[in-house]
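Quick start: what a row looks like.
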Amino acid sequence: MTDSSNTEIRDQFWLRPLAELSRQEWEMLCDGCARCCLKKLQDVDSLKVQFTRVACRYLNQNQCTCKAYKTRQFKVPDCLVLDMENLPSALHWIPETCAYKLRFLDRPLPDWHPLLTGNRTAMIEKGISITGRILSEDNVHENGLEEHVIRWVKA
């Protein structure tokens, strides 16, 4: 991924290898579903990851945006700033619908992706966005996450 922040956005940049994307193109690849902001549980034996309906306290649930995006790593030390270096080791927990995961695996973007449709409507209609389906971690005891495991998000 190149560092240039003022580069022109290339036509159909999402078809290019991830390593060739500018920082701006990389950011635009995100569909904004916020599934990665859900708390996850991992079985110590099988290493299987389960998603919960409990989201990070900094998630704006209506817009699926981070209220602390630029400082998220300081406020939430285990929040991963995804890049080409750490993407391969994160594939086991990244949602199966994630554009970064799909493109890393050389798969196309889903037909509902905002880059293909021009808006978020199809993504919302497909039930990909987490808006209206989650709780903030502020309202759930840390030891109660297991009560909130969901099946509509898979890694």
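That is the whole record. Residues 13-148 form one domain. The beta strands are 38-42, 49-55, 59-60, 65-66, 135-136.
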